[in-house]
Specification:
Blueprint (H helix, E strand, L loop, with lengths): L4 H10 L12 E6 L4 E5 L12 H11 L5 E8 L9 H10 L4 E6 L4 E5 H4 L7 H11 L4
Parallel strand pairs: 3-4
Antiparallel strand pairs: 1-2, 1-3, 4-5
């Protein structure tokens, strides 16, 4: 039994993935600053650029629910080796989870843990950027 609710949620959402072209199903779950968990799955499209990754699906659900901070992310695939978020997903994770832990897992719940800084080692961490990001996040809804 997998004890981590975040990983269990990602595994559950992976079952709903729509991947008729690649058959590469991905599930993701994020934990918002409130502690609530949001799941998502990948959704492919014949026009490949319109494909939505599981990580961004989960983050979009969290933001739509009012979250402005992500503290943890779990990504689950059935690949032989643990898969990592793509560059676009890493950027979106960074926007909402500068200090987030990212768990990259297989369907059995075996995970490798990374920090946002490990996945995006050269991101802009200047005071000006951090201040602007906080200003944007703290705007009234």
């Amino acid at each position: 039994m997998i004890k981590d609710e975040l990983v269990r949620t990602a595994i559950e959402y992976r079952q709903n993935a729509y991947a008729p072209y690649s058959n590469f199903k991905v599930g993701a779950a994020v934990q918002g600053g409130s502690g609530k968990i949001y799941g998502g799955c990948n959704m492919e499209n014949a026009s490949y650029g319109l494909t939505i990754c599981a990580e961004r699906s989960a983050i979009t659900r969290a933001v739509a629910a009012g979250e402005r901070e992500i503290t943890r992310v779990a990504v689950v695939t059935e690949a032989a080796e643990v898969s990592m978020p793509c560059g676009a997903c890493r950027q979106v994770i960074l926007e909402f989870g500068r200090e987030a832990d990212i768990l990259c897992c297989d369907v059995e719940g075996n995970c490798n843990k990374y920090t946002t800084g490990e996945l995006m080692p050269n991101f802009d961490d200047s005071d000006a950027f951090r201040n602007k990001l906080e200003e944007v996040k703290n705007k009234p809804k």
